[in-house]
Design brief:
Layout lengths: L1 H9 L5 E4 L6 H7 L3 E4 L13 E2 L9 H8 L4 E2 L1 H10 L2 E7 L4 H14 L5 E3 L11 E2 L16 E6 L4 E3 L2 E4 L8 E4 L13 H14 L5 E5 L3 H7 L5 E7 L11 E9 L2 E8 L2 E8 L4 H18 L3 H9 L9 E4 L5 E5 L4 H14 L5 E5 L15 H4 L5 E4 L15 H10 L3 E4 L3 H11 L5 E5 L7 H12 L1
Parallel strand pairs: 1-2, 3-4, 5-8, 5-11, 6-8, 11-12, 12-13, 13-14, 18-22, 19-20, 19-22, 20-21
Antiparallel strand pairs: 6-7, 9-10, 14-15, 15-16, 17-18
């Protein structure tokens, strides 16, 4: 929603927005973009009737401002409707979907298209370091090769499977008109709206069905649920995988063979259709980031006709996305990272990547279960092994209090299971206690990673300041 507000400002519209708070990283950016930020939800915000009200999916039917917009008969829509109306027309959308890796892969694809002359529009659910903003209007059509299949101006967008709005209960990505689609992974998530795995798979099946016969689906060959879903595609399917992965007898058209892995990133050999396509470098650690890069390369090369020779230097210049293994600072030579990871798979991959980057450091993982899925017992047994790369695990209180005891993730059980794995672990009643613990045990050369899909109660700033004051 924040990126959409900025995009609408770039298109010349006057934009205001209401929220309970405007936290970093997006809050300060909104003010820079000229978006009028109104704290709290109040029908009075609509007294000067806007031409259009965009209602986010965080709003419930009882939200006083959303309710007032509907009851007063004001024109209203959701984020997908606004994007379709103002940004996606006359473009060829590249939609990145999947349980994991959407934001980084979207930023990668936008960066690669930009560096190879396509002037893409984009909307990214994070702040990419290679662009000043997380959004851009598509530029003039300029397709450098005849292999572009008649595609129009590219618009790269993160395809979220979460529902669109309380008045439109379909997944957001069904509204984005994909011509080229990436499917990174499928693992049951968002249990609040997809109670069963089959419910979750159904959303992705509908998404794949939206890609026309003239389109392209770039699919993770090593994910059996992805293979199951894309088997029904009417569009061409281009599979990608890393060398050595089990692809269930599916041939990967796009294959990456890691050559060198070091703290600065990964060098790999790329193969397309069984032919060597050269050596590429990615300045991000972790196999999950290599797969994100491979998917993006496949989509922009096969989907839009970008030349592989141009893509190699473009990939090497990719700087990443804020809140994805982002180094916030190193006060007292304690390295503090911030990451959006909250699903067990994302936690595991993030910590493994940071362990590879800092093989000899003590690694402290501070985790806030905040999402609807993370706060529930759905992944009770998966969380403890997800912290395998950490030396000590600090668990913050659950981010949701509206669940029954039978539903809630049992943090005490997570601690016991971690201790059985010979991990030092504890749950804490407050963020103050977490700060105190880190101040007591963290020394120069240690690494602290903060894992939350929210603002974490301002913990990143508080911890940096406390470590700086300690000296």
């Amino acid at each position: 929603m924040g990126s959409l507000a900025g995009l609408l400002r770039e298109l010349g519209h006057e934009v205001s927005g209401s929220d309970v708070a405007f936290e970093p990283p997006i809050g300060p950016e909104l003010e820079k973009w000229g978006v009028r930020c109104l704290t709290g939800f109040d029908p009075a915000h609509l007294d000067k009737a806007p031409d259009l009200v965009v209602i986010g999916n965080v709003c419930r039917p009882t939200n006083p401002e959303a309710r007032a917009a509907i009851d007063r008969g004001l024109p209203y829509t959701h984020i997908a409707g606004a994007l379709a109306r103002f940004a996606l027309s006359e473009t060829s959308p590249l939609v990145v979907a999947g349980t994991h890796g959407k934001t980084t892969t979207t930023a990668l694809a936008a960066h690669l298209l930009d560096k190879t002359g396509f002037a893409p529009g984009f909307l990214i659910g994070g702040l990419p370091k290679n662009f000043e903003r997380s959004f851009r209007v598509a530029g003039p059509r300029r397709l450098p090769t005849p292999e572009s299949r008649g595609r129009r101006r590219p618009f790269v967008i993160e395809g979220d499977e979460y529902d669109t709005a309380f008045f439109e209960k379909s997944p957001k990505f069904l509204h984005y008109r994909p011509e080229v689609a990436i499917l990174t992974s499928i693992e049951h998530d968002h249990i609040d709206i997809y109670p069963t795995l089959e419910d979750y798979l159904s959303a992705f099946r509908k998404f794949v069905a939206r890609v026309p016969e003239s389109g392209l689906v770039v699919a993770n060959a090593a994910d059996p649920l992805v293979r199951e879903v894309v088997a029904e595609a009417k569009a061409e399917v281009a599979y990608f995988a890393l060398q050595g992965e089990d692809t269930g007898r599916v041939a990967a058209h796009w294959l990456a063979a890691p050559a060198e892995v070091d703290p600065s990133g990964i060098t790999f050999d790329l193969f397309a259709g069984g032919m060597a396509a050269g050596r590429f470098a990615l300045g991000l650690p972790g196999r999950h980031n290599l797969k994100n890069a491979l998917a993006a390369l496949a989509a922009v090369a096969q989907g839009f006709g970008a030349r592989l020779g141009d893509l190699a230097p473009a990939l090497a210049s990719f700087a990443g996305v804020r809140r994805r293994q982002e180094l916030l600072g190193s006060p007292g030579r304690v390295l503090v990272y911030d990451d959006f990871a909250h699903h067990p798979t994302a936690v595991r991959e993030t910590l493994a990547a940071l362990r590879a980057r800092h093989p000899n450091a003590r690694l402290f993982a501070v985790f806030e279960p905040r999402s609807a899925t993370a706060c529930r017992k759905l992944h009770q047994t998966e969380y403890p092994p997800a912290f395998a790369a950490a030396d000590e695990v600090l668990l913050a209180p659950l981010g949701r209090s509206n669940l029954s005891p039978e539903e809630m993730l049992d943090l005490d059980a997570v601690v016991l299971d971690l201790q059985k794995l010979d991990k030092r672990a504890a749950r804490f009643a407050s963020l103050d206690e977490i700060v105190a613990r880190i101040l007591k045990v963290a020394n120069a050369g240690d690494v602290v990673v903060l894992l939350s899909n929210g603002a974490f109660g301002g913990l990143p700033k508080r911890l940096l300041e406390a470590l700086e004051a300690r000296g």
